[in-house]
Amino acid sequence: MSGRAQTRSSSRKIPTQPSVQSQAITSTIPFRSRKIRKIASDSSVKGPSRCSLKSDTKAPRFKIAGLDETLILTKPDEEAETLAENSTRLLDVTSAVITAPLIKPLSTDGEIECSLQHLRDSDPLLRSVIDAFQPPSFDSSRSPFHALTKSIIYQQLSTKAGKCIYTRFISLFETEANINSKTILSLSAQQLREIGISGRKASYMHDLACKYEDGSLSDEMILRMDDERLLKKLTTVKGIGPWTVHMFMIFSLHRPDVLPVGDLGVRKGVKMLYKLNGLPDAVMMEKMCEKWKPYRSVGSWYMWRFVEAKGVLAPPLS
């Protein structure tokens, strides 16, 4: 009995060094060492709450506390997202931080000249259009949030009507510098309707502001995302579709290689330039304008000028 007890006692001893066989059993999948991503959390906090349209709303905020060996995402104790939402948010934020446009914006010195030279060399038909007009200029000092808000206001309005409503909108803030997500959320839909902004557009503006407040979007993220990811991200905002994003990327972010395949003016210009029988669809637009890469934004700009001139080109500018 003593011998059997001794055997049982010894069998309960834990070896200080696991054998090779036990390692193979307990760890069947090899792992490479990698950077650790931590998500700070507090089990005592409550679940997520919807973004309110009231000015005193405190929506969850997320920020990057470090981006060297360890990436830590922090959030306030009073508001918390679920773990699954946090993981998705982490991927969005880190991707935005490390992803930057590879091509210089068109507002960079000398970039317009480079684009015109490329388009002249790659498309003889477009060369005649380029030579008939003054080169474009792309200047804008508005923040991405401000520019998107203005884009929503101008949707489906004439330039004159849009300018009138936008002027009234600015008067609510005293100056354009005061336009941000918090000040937008401080305005009710009724206040916005009183200056001519429809209830639907007011809901679009509030949705954009909410996404800024909860960390889904930020100016920094927008500036660092590539074109494809930016299109996907911004179209999650109510009322913002591909056309609005394309215009935003060209005229606010000055992205050089944007082809607004759904824009009627650009489609008409391509039809006239290449003497097509009908308006090209998105697939045909991509095919016909392939030679313009990586400056399709500039080629599109000339299509608008070409349509405005009704296809009649003035003598080349000296």
TrEMBL record:
<feature type="domain" description="HhH-GPD">
    <location>
        <begin position="153"/>
        <end position="308"/>
    </location>
</feature>
<dbReference type="InterPro" id="IPR051912">
    <property type="entry name" value="Alkylbase_DNA_Glycosylase/TA"/>
</dbReference>
<dbReference type="GO" id="GO:0032993">
    <property type="term" value="C:protein-DNA complex"/>
</dbReference>
<dbReference type="GO" id="GO:0032131">
    <property type="term" value="F:alkylated DNA binding"/>
</dbReference>
<dbReference type="GO" id="GO:0043916">
    <property type="term" value="F:DNA-7-methylguanine glycosylase activity"/>
</dbReference>
<dbReference type="GO" id="GO:0008725">
    <property type="term" value="F:DNA-3-methyladenine glycosylase activity"/>
</dbReference>
<comment type="similarity">
    <text>Belongs to the alkylbase DNA glycosidase AlkA family.</text>
</comment>
<dbReference type="InterPro" id="IPR011257">
    <property type="entry name" value="DNA_glycosylase"/>
</dbReference>
<dbReference type="GO" id="GO:0005634">
    <property type="term" value="C:nucleus"/>
</dbReference>
<dbReference type="Pfam" id="PF00730">
    <property type="entry name" value="HhH-GPD"/>
</dbReference>
<dbReference type="GO" id="GO:0006307">
    <property type="term" value="P:DNA alkylation repair"/>
</dbReference>
<protein>
    <recommendedName>
        <fullName>HhH-GPD domain-containing protein</fullName>
    </recommendedName>
</protein>
<feature type="region of interest" description="Disordered">
    <location>
        <begin position="1"/>
        <end position="29"/>
    </location>
</feature>
<keyword id="KW-0234">DNA repair</keyword>
<dbReference type="InterPro" id="IPR003265">
    <property type="entry name" value="HhH-GPD_domain"/>
</dbReference>
<keyword id="KW-0227">DNA damage</keyword>
<dbReference type="GO" id="GO:0006285">
    <property type="term" value="P:base-excision repair, AP site formation"/>
</dbReference>
